[in-house]
Design brief:
Shape: globular
Strand content: under 5%
Helix content: 40-55%
Amino acid sequence: MDLNSKLAVLDQIYRVYDEFVANLHIACKKYCTGCCTCNVTMTTLEGYFMAKHMISYGKSSLFENIERSIPKRRFQPQTTTNRLADLCIRGKDFMKEENDYVNGSCPLLKDRLCPVYQVRPFGCRCFVSKHDCRDKGYAEVDSFVLSVNNLFLQVIEHVDSQGFSGNLIDVLKFMASKKNRHNYKMNRLENPDTGLIPNLKIKVLMIPPEHRVKIKPILNALQRIKRDL
């Protein structure tokens, strides 16, 4: 699949999720930035999508915010969602990763608004809570929603299986380079060695038995995407 096709698939994946979230009772709203931390993770496909938007719409100065955030502490994942699923199904040990939620806000925020909200990665889209996170200091998410979120994370990683994943800061720093964007577009990425980890295709879906019937319509909608494009 070429890059334009992958971007079209990604856009449709986002649409399916937005339709799902539209039916939820959540507290998330404009200016609610309690979950907009520097610990968001995403794929290189999402990073390319964001970088092209930033460049095309005169927001390249946001790359300077990213550059200034490089020295700061942030969550940098060591295992992708699909690799974790693969390790679990094979009964292999894996290191539990700790995500410190008090490391600061997202470097892209401006006046409590996201300047790239339209193309925000799934790691931002899936932050949905039944109550205002600022009131209790944490999000309250239904267990079924968590299963749906894991499904979407697995599918997006699968679409970008030849790419990488990492912290939003590291991915956007990588995509700030015209050479890196070109190599990604031409599918010539080597291990970037910039805090990013290689993606993996789906080998098994992490859907608990109690959610398999309810999640089927969403899974069907995701499976139709490539066929409909």
